[in-house]
Design a protein that fits this description.
The chain is an all-alpha fold. It has one domain (about 5-215). It is about 70% helix and about 0% strand. It is globular, with a radius of gyration of 18 Å.
């Protein structure tokens, strides 16, 4: 489910969620960029991507997807893997960095909600706190969705590069060419919106339910 129903039911909570989401996407891509720099590749830094400015990272289509269907992406951070001091380690670490950040954000928000529950703040909270609670719950859900969605081994998602870091090296040139092919990206997007939308949505819903159950929410 996207964010448009929230806009209709609670505009203030919608604004809070969008702000948190922009920061989350920026942190996700910053994680890729800073990790690439640590691994020896300055490409992202040279293109101004080692920054927390959301405007440097947002992708129009990916942002619209989040609003409409609840999952999407930001603008991929440019990397040049031959610069990595250790190619496989660098590719793995850079690819998983954004996912780890989204999971940390989702976990932090879930812990905040759990604390508020333990303190009794979730029982008949004042109106301003209801907005914060709703925004925190939706933002945690979206960050979890972004993490799981990016784990899918479908180029150009992060999961494909995580898998790639374990694959034989002679396969890598073909994968890089596939990722750079705009026709492939369009076909993959259409498949996610049509054929795989329902099973993917069901899977993500199950993951979200299990995640919040872990915190007793």
């Amino acid at each position: 489910m996207g964010l448009l129903p929230l806009l209709q039911s609670d505009p203030l909570a919608f604004v809070l969620v969008v702000l948190v989401l922009m920061v989350s996407l920026a942190l996700h891509e910053w994680g890729h960029a800073i990790t690439a720099l640590w691994m020896g590749d300055p490409t992202a830094k040279e293109q101004g991507r080692v920054t927390l400015n959301p405007l440097k990272h947002l992708d129009i289509i990916g942002s619209v997807m989040i609003l409409l269907v609840g999952f999407g992406w930001a603008k991929p951070v440019p990397i040049y893997p031959p610069h990595f001091r250790n190619y496989r380690v660098g590719l793995f670490m850079v690819s998983i960095a954004g996912i780890v950040i989204n999971l940390l954000i989702a976990t932090s928000l879930a812990l905040l909600l759990r604390w508020m529950l333990d303190m009794g703040y979730l029982h008949n909270p004042p109106s301003f706190l209801q907005v914060v609670i709703q925004a925190a719950a939706v933002a945690a859900s979206i960050n979890l969705t972004l993490a799981v969605f990016n784990l899918l081994p479908i180029p150009p998602l992060d999961g494909s590069k995580i898998l790639q870091s374990f694959l034989p090296l002679h396969w890598h040139p073909y994968i890089w060419r596939l990722e750079s092919n705009p026709t492939y990206a369009i076909v993959a997007l259409l498949l996610l919106l049509t054929v795989f939308r329902q099973p993917l949505g069901s899977f993500l819903s199950t993951v979200r339910m299990q995640f919040f159950n872990l915190f007793g929410l």
